[in-house]
Design goal:
The complex is a heterotrimer of chains A (325), B (261) and C (294).
Chain A lengths: L2 H23 L6 H24 L7 H17 L5 H25 L3 H20 L1 H4 L12 E2 L2 E2 L3 H23 L2 H11 L1 H6 L4 H27 L9 H14 L4 H16 L9 H15 L7 H18 L1
Antiparallel strand pairs in A: 1-2
Chain B lengths: L12 E10 L2 E11 L4 E5 L6 H9 L6 E6 L2 E2 L5 H7 L1 E3 L12 H7 L9 H6 L2 H21 L14 H13 L5 E5 L7 H16 L3 E5 L3 H7 L2 E6 L2 E6 L1 H5 L2 H8 L3
Helix pairs in contact in B: 3-5, 3-6, 5-6
Chain C lengths: L1 H32 L6 H17 L5 H24 L7 H23 L15 E3 L2 E3 L1 H23 L1 H11 L1 H6 L4 H27 L6 H14 L5 H22 L4 H15 L8 H7 L1
Antiparallel strand pairs in C: 1-2
Classes of the chains: A mainly alpha (325), B alpha/beta (261), C mainly alpha (294).
Chain lengths: 325, 261, 294
Amino acid sequence: MNKKDRWAFVGMGLLIAVFPGVALNVKCISHYVDVMVFAGIFSLVSLGLCMLMGYAGQVSMAQAAFFGIGAYSSGILTSRLGWNPWMAMPAGAGVAALVAWIIGVPALRLKGHYLAMATLGFGVIVHIILGEEVKWTGGPSGMVDIPGLQIAGWKLTSEVAWYYMIWSVVFMALLFCLHVIYSRVGRGLRAIHEEEMAAESMGVPTACYKVQIFVFSAILSAIAGSFYTHYVTCLNPGSFNLMWSIRFVLMVMVGGTQSLWGAILGAVLLTFAGNEWLQIFSDFEILVYGAMLLCAALFLPGGLASLVPKVIGVFRNSLTHLCKR
Amino acid sequence: MQEACCPELSSILEISDVQMHFGGIVALKGIRYAVPPGIIQALIGPNGAGKTTLFHCISGLIQPTFGHVLFEGRQIDGMLPHKIARLGISRTFQHVALFKSMTVLENIMLGRHPKTKSGFWATGLRLPAMRREERKILETARYHLDFVGLGDSANLPAGTLPLGKQRILEIARALATDPRLLLLDEPAGGLNIRETEVLGDLIQRIRACGVTVILVEHDMNLVMEIADRILVLHYGSQLASGTPMEIMDHPAVIEAYLGGG
Amino acid sequence: MGTDFLQYTITGLTVGVIYAMVAIGYNIIYNVTEIINFAQGEFVMLGGLFAAFFVGTLHLPVFLAFFAAVIATGCVGFAMERFVIRRARNAGVLSLIIITIAVSILLKGSAMLGYGKDPHCLPAFSTRGPIMIAGAVLQPQVLWIFGVSALVVIALSFFFHRSFYGKAMLACADNPIAARMVGIPVRQMVLLAFILSASIGAAAGVIITPISLMDYDRGAMLGLKGFGAAVLGGLGNFYGALLAGCVLGLAESYCAGYLSSGYKDAVALIFLLLALFFKPEGLFGSEAATLKKF
């Protein structure tokens, strides 16, 4: 980790820590804590996807499916088979990892569009299975009465408790990703991003790294799915369709594909947009998402994160200008 | 062309009847050659002679249509490039393929990839073994940085260096993999006389470390000065090979280069 | 048993031909630009909805509506290339994927805005009653579907092998730089590819709507299955696409008939995944084409 990331890490930590204190005392935004729990859950997905898009240069249209695999594994294992949620979570992650590996190995051997299309097809298949296997998943009407989470015998019931728990997990995941980026493997990944042929010739196993990142992103999504299940305690297949996969891609695009900070920012913004600001559009929010995705890809390929250094630069310039006067 | 093989010398690299077809175009028409260890072997010929194609075949970026490549007696055609790098062959590129937004030091650190092994999970969790390895990578990278004389630009982004230094950096990155065979693709391309001199000196120092160097180059002065042996390619087949002196007087080479004038 | 089988075969071939037309749409754009247009399915949906609008609201006769819908969707293809794809001509593969996905969402959203969520219907092209063949029902519309798609395939192969523009487009596909050097306006060819592929998609949408209705949400699935046909037939190969489309349609129809109707949509996708994994050059794609393109 370099200096900038260290400062950003501390800064974001403080911001996240004090947020509930502020939000809960202001009446009209007190429910923002709840929104931020979802933002945290989705941040996990977008972190994994950001590693895949920004560093392996591939896009997955199946993150919602992996999210769903995690969610339904947790739901089925806990409510139908009586497992402990903390056992169900790694089980779901394991299933997602295995599936991602099976898809990833052949699809990543091919270039360009193939992983996108393969994951698109796979995502739809998972969605169909969730709707069809009524005996296990409850079919289109979904599942209810899934148990919540307990930590050492203490039930997580309040939103604030969930908030702190989920954001600690996000920070752990972020730390993990940052460590990867600033290490041997991360150098390999950045090298693949810049000059794939040279990276391969310098001994970087490019295909293997891409598969690992894809599997990693699937695991993060599945874990996020598990948390989601135990937070909302009910499930239906509608939360795991193609539109959700596109939303996850949009989170990363808005934040910036090459920045893990951007991924979290994007997840927070999009969650607020989806849960709060775009409610007035109701069904037509899909249009807003399409427009946002198009604009991000056409006009702001680096995402919002790429604006930060520019803004800081302008700020600094005007500051020195003022001081000179 | 009978002199191409040198049976009396044990060879580090053996190219046996390598052919490369791109659709209907034949870029290499059956090259047979053996490179003895510890020398600077130059590979010359006009543009389109198949020099870079041969490099790609050796480093595994393309697979020869026919024939085999043997490195230290081991067949390497059909292997993936990163596996070949692991065996001890490294290379540079004609178009300077540096990782431009990474720093100079990071570029060389990347070169340690084949000699290190901490994986994805180990790096993410920062396990102690990985930290030790990371320190070692940094140490070795600094050593190579000083070896090529770029110590003062360690933390600059590689893309900001002038071309001469970029070519040197690419060599340093290749050296960081601890190769026994180093392939240099036009390392003097675009360099001025002063820079070329530094480069020639560096290549000779690399040979002194026991690394065999194969050099594709157009700068004849450089080739004649430092090469121990020369192989001349012409439209995908070998025209002549021998010491610089032999090549200079070789009638076929004179014919090809001066156009039979 | 025999009757059922015949009935499933008719149904399978009908949807199979539609998948084939979607696949041909992918192929045209892919051939010229090497872009996979993720919005291809939306063109089909738009074609169907436009035609429903022209017939239902403007009371045009159905044949006029067919052409009007094809032209209207062609205009959408034009706009997509001219105002979106052209701006992103220097973008990487990742951006292009995302851009075409964004366009597909926009088209879908606009269709929902314009036509609502309910399915729309269209009268059949001819008013004759169904034909009975050995106990199986054959809607006359199915014959129209076969006829129109056969016409499209024949017209396309004439276009690509006989006409100047078609040959120029193939040249762009083969080697864009060389094509530009001999004076072929590559940009115009790309534009033409988008218009053509949107129109063909729209034609598919119009002819299937009398049988299966059309709503705003159908595009993605049609697009995916069509892509399955394109890959299975070998990307860039028209006849391969036609054959593969029929294979997919039949597989889907038999699955719905004999196994489980719930999983019928998954069948084509499983074929798509299997093709991507085990035979990415397709059943009929040539080795050389694969080498060049991937």
